[in-house]
Amino acid sequence: MNARSEEDVSFLDWMQGIQVGMEVVLERFLPAADQIPQRLHQAMRYTTLDGGKRIRPLLVYAAGELFAAPHALIARAAAAVEMIHVYSLVHDDMPCMDDDALRRGKPTVHVKYDEATALLVGDALQAQAFAVLSTIDDERDTARQMTMLGLLAQAAGSGGMCGGQAIDLASVGMRLSLTELEQMHRLKTGALLRASVLLGAGAGQLLSPAQSAALHSYADAIGLAFQVVDDILDATADSATLGKTAGKDAADNKPTYVSLLGLSQSQALAQKLCADAHAALEQFAAPARRLHELADLIVQRKA
Q1: Residue 276 has pLDDT above 90, yes or no
Q2: Within 10 Å of residue 163's Cβ, how many Cβ atoms?
Q3: Of 61, 69, 123, 145, which residue is the least packed, with the fewest Cβ within 10 Å?
Q4: What is the CATH number of the domain that holds 80?
């Protein structure tokens, strides 16, 4: 029986294949549970494995396949970006941040273990992400991986995710303008989503300026759309559906798209950003199919 061509594989099958494959990849790249210090490694595996939609790895794979990147390098980039994302969730849930007890449908790390362990889990996952991405499978990839390491570091640091989180914490109880809210989320949420797209593409062929600009536009649109939808779901879905505490933003008096624009305008904004993402991919035509489908998934998701 002949293997099905890419065109014959449905989006659902493609997505589930990568989600299942990421469990294998992450299992391989995480320290073993019985390796000293066992409690720390067990907690790292507890929070990273068997959970989440793996949106960021999916973006890495979609962009990497578009630019014919080596599979081994795509896998490393996808694992690294997911580890950074998971570390951010562990720290975000701690009492000194958002103080949440539920994540991905199970107790958060500081609840399951303790606060000190949760802090160390985040620190260790961040270090492990860069260790994974810096390991060379093919010497021809060395220059590419150096560029990718810089890209991931920038997205994760004070000019990206951490900076956005700092603004978020400083904005509790404040009414931000739409421009200020967008700036916060371009850093807090959008930076790592953008890095996912660019890491996947960067693992492949050298991009032209036009291709790079198109991917930046696409990533910026889905990055904001992701947060708009998160705010909508926080206001409309229940905790069982979300796998985390619903209504937390309103309870904590945080500025959101829903609190600023209202529900209907926030929904309209999400649809506009989705259309912007699709428009940004026009030059790539049919080969960008998976990136188109992921834009729709981000906006249409229910959790």
Answers
A1: yes
A2: 18
A3: 123
A4: 1.10.600.10
Asked if residue 119 is part of any domain, the answer here is yes
Q: For position 163, what pLDDT does the model report? A: 96
Q: What is the 3-state secondary structure (H, E, C) of the chain?
A: CCCCCHHHCCHHHHHHHHHHHHHHHHHHHCCCCCCCCHHHHHHHHHHHCCCCCCHHHHHHHHHHHHCCCCHHHHHHHHHHHHHHHHHHHHHHCCCCCCCCCEECCEECHHHHCCHHHHHHHHHHHHHHHHHHHHCCCCHHHHHHHHHHHHHHHHHHCCCCHHHHHHHHHHCCCCCCCHHHHHHHHHHHHHHHHHHHHHHHHHCCCCCCHHHHHHHHHHHHHHHHHHHHHHHHHHHHCCHHHHCCCCCHHHHCCCCCHHHHHCHHHHHHHHHHHHHHHHHHCHHHCHHHHHHHHHHHHHHHCCC
Question: Residue 194 falls within a domain, yes or no?
Answer: yes
Those residues whose C-beta lies under 8 Å from the C-beta of residue 154, and which sit 6 or more positions away, are 160, 191, 195
Whether the predicted pLDDT of 215 surpasses 70? yes
What confidence score (pLDDT) does residue 5 get? 52
pLDDT tens per residue across span 38-62: 999 999 999 999 878 999 999 999 9
- Mean of the pLDDT values across residues 235-242? 79
Given this model, what pLDDT does residue 1 score?
31
Domain that holds residue 284: 10-300
Side-chain-side CA neighbours of 268 within 13 Å: the count stands at 5
For residue 224, is pLDDT > 80?
Answer: yes
Q: Is the pLDDT of residue 244 over 90?
A: no
How many domains does the chain divide into? Answer: 1
Q: Per-residue pLDDT for 289 more than 70?
A: yes
Task: Decide if 243 contacts 230 (C-beta within 8 A).
Answer: no
Domain assignment of residue 5, yes or no: no
